[in-house]
Amino acid sequence: MTETLSGRHIEIAWPDLGITVTAELDDRNPALADALWEALPYQSLQGHALVAGSHLYHVAPIHSLLHLPASHRIADRREAPDGTVFCSALQHLGIKYGTLTEPMPASPVGRVRPEDMPALTEAGTAVWDAVYSTKKPILVEVRRAGLGGGHRIPRLTAADADADRLLHDVHTETERIWLTEPPELAELHRGWIPSGAGSYGTVLPTLLFVNGETRPLGYATYGGLVRAVVGGMPLDSLRQMARLQAGVPAEFLGYCGLEKLWAFTQRFLACLDRLDRDDFQAVVSQMALYINCLGGWNLHLFPWDAGDHLRRLPSAEAGQGS
Prior knowledge:
With about 325 residues, the protein is an alpha+beta fold. It contains nine helices and nine strands.
């Protein structure tokens, strides 16, 4: 499919780095591009791919990214030109700025202009250093070109009173932690674990398990429930899937220190049988955004450089050891 430009320009800025790049949205995925355009401006914690290569991504406060269909998919994002901007069902806005190693389909919505590629590469290198080593949060602002910045988290509503109170509380907590590290995660990464999680006083295994449970809970469980309700899954089946998939990992994460997440989950499960389809979608959408925010912070705070002595072997050397 030929890329058709739309004339809609966005600025992606990292104020702490003094770097701004401009991208033009195109018409390859108009529904995704429209959702992004209508959500601007917003700010988020900037993340960096940890296994895929030279790729920036952040959680975008756009509920509809969880379910909007892509009309055009690149079969292998490694082959996309550097500077390609993507939106994904993981609720991410991503930017390829160099070599990628992970072959996966992706949904492009635009491209950074060529003259800004050196600045984009500089931003990518600085963000990698922050995520891997320094742990200094770097915020990103996405806005319509030439207009002012700003930020807001969309708040969904429900007809059921208990569900609506839950939505209010989840939204309030998401706003509180969106641009500032969640206290419970900060304490966990400093080794303060009131439950005593971590055999023989260790911390790193607990951090690893928290990361391993939080990401799929947001990406797969709640994101999957959103896509299932939009796709027409019967309400009884949605309730059953929510009970099967949401409770156990949330209870474990509560034990590890994410007590608010466990409390929200208990409230969701308690009112589940009263929710109609609209209320169900609202609650799982708001929970997905909250948990994806937690996941983004956990990836930033995790001590990745603890394994700095482990480096990938070239293919020839790896083969010699087998």
